[in-house]
Automatic annotation (TrEMBL):
<keyword id="KW-0862">Zinc</keyword>
<protein>
    <recommendedName>
        <fullName>Phosphate propanoyltransferase</fullName>
        <ecNumber>2.3.1.222</ecNumber>
    </recommendedName>
</protein>
<comment type="similarity">
    <text>Belongs to the PduL family.</text>
</comment>
<keyword id="KW-0808">Transferase</keyword>
<keyword id="KW-0012">Acyltransferase</keyword>
<dbReference type="InterPro" id="IPR008300">
    <property type="entry name" value="PTAC"/>
</dbReference>
<comment type="function">
    <text>Involved in 1,2-propanediol (1,2-PD) degradation by catalyzing the conversion of propanoyl-CoA to propanoyl-phosphate.</text>
</comment>
<keyword id="KW-0479">Metal-binding</keyword>
<comment type="pathway">
    <text>Polyol metabolism; 1,2-propanediol degradation.</text>
</comment>
<dbReference type="Pfam" id="PF06130">
    <property type="entry name" value="PTAC"/>
</dbReference>
<dbReference type="GO" id="GO:0016746">
    <property type="term" value="F:acyltransferase activity"/>
</dbReference>
């Protein structure tokens, strides 16, 4: 049986180094609040506000380290509250997506694009993917058990020797399936 731990991803933002400095001040370094499941990734102690056409969220957690481009990941419910309709995309694929205003303690940034609903995906270390015969970018079918058992289709496989085995879904998907971080999913195909 191909069992995978589940990680539920709440709304969060990845910031470029330039935007960290514009939001928090020149030379500012993010502080680690806690390490995440992926090696080298962490939830920062710092948060920002994001403002869309119809709504605002304060205290949006920053995930570090700095990225090449700023990207806000929200659930479909979050997007509705902000007054937006971002596409479902793989992380990092922000071309043609809506922008948003990001506010920090030292300033604000208006990004022209970068808001997505993250595609559900599983991070595979190359060894795990090889053992199970799974290729990078393959679309998988995954089942979660329980009172609200659910089958997720089109789960993107992301394979790298930099990844640790973990399935990432957003809060809307987790609520629909009645699962939480640490629960287990089974890859069907």
């Amino acid at each position: 049986m191909k069992q995978v731990p589940i990680g539920v991803s709440a709304r969060h933002i990845h910031l470029s180094l330039e935007h960290i400095e514009r939001l928090f001040g020149e030379g500012y370094q993010l502080n680690v609040l806690k390490d995440l499941s992926q090696p080298g990734q962490y939830a920062a102690a710092e948060t920002v506000a994001v403002v869309g056409p119809k709504g605002r969220f304060d205290k949006v957690r920053i995930l570090g380290p700095a990225r090449g481009k700023t990207q806000l990941e929200v659930s479909r419910s979050d997007a509705f509250a902000l007054g937006m309709n971002p596409p479902v995309r793989e992380s990092g694929h922000t071309e043609g997506t809506p922008g948003i205003t990001v506010i920090g303690p030292a300033g604000q940034v208006d990004i022209e694009e970068g808001v997505i609903v993250a595609a559900r995906h599983i991070h595979f270390h190359r060894d795990d993917a090889a053992r199970w015969g799974i290729a990078d970018k393959q679309l998988l079918t995954v089942k979660v058990e329980g009172e609200r058992a659910l089958i997720f289709e089109k789960v993107l496989a992301r394979v790298s020797d930099q990844f640790a085995l973990d399935m990432h879904i957003d809060t809307d998907e987790a609520n629909a399936a009645g699962v939480k971080t640490g629960d287990v999913a089974v890859i069907l195909s």
